[in-house]
Amino acid sequence: MPRGASYMRGSLAPRGCNSSVFLPRINASMLFTVLVAAVIVVVTSIEPADAVAGVTTFNDFGTQSTVACAGFASTNSQGSGIFAAAMSDLSPLWQGARCQGTMDASKCNGRGSCVNCVGPACPDEERCGTCFNVKCTGSLDGETSGACSGRTIKVKIVDACPATHPANFCKIPQFGGTIRPIEACEQPGVNALDIATTARSALSTFQGNLNIDIEQTSC
Prior knowledge:
The protein is α/β, with parallel strands linked by helices. The chain is 11% helix and 21% strand. The protein contains 3 helices and 6 strands, in the order H-E-E-E-E-H-E-H-E. Strands 1-5-2-4-3-6 form a 6-stranded mixed beta barrel.
């Protein structure tokens, strides 16, 4: 701009020009409205989290005296149509420090069972009380007789399925057992649940363990 020239406040043209184009004033209230609208657009465009693939085994929680999550009952039903579930501490969905303990071969009989079956403590499990929608996607054992029900059930995490529990690691071939690690909460990187046995028929007509989709939801 040449020395001495000036601009009219709110005008795009130098003083004296006959231009009718003006830049409107933007006050704080207008700016706030624009920003709020932008935030709403961004938030509403975010897609909900997709379900992740996983596997499930089945457990009768009614045979246990306690569960890892304090304040929750060791019952298959957690009320309102919600089933009890434990989560493997090797699962990507797991939050918090892994359960305590080590995989000690002296606790196994070498034939797939434990001789000292006391489980480890899991004081840092952060998924306690979290609910997930679960849907069968197929047989984990390769069964050809049976089918997924197509139903989605809701489970609540009330327990852990620790890789360092003798009842788990003693089952796998490394310690003399015959169960695949993926079916004993012993497979790293796999989202593994152990769901109440009462949920089995709601998920499928397969007799064994299942491939599933898992999606976090409200309880």
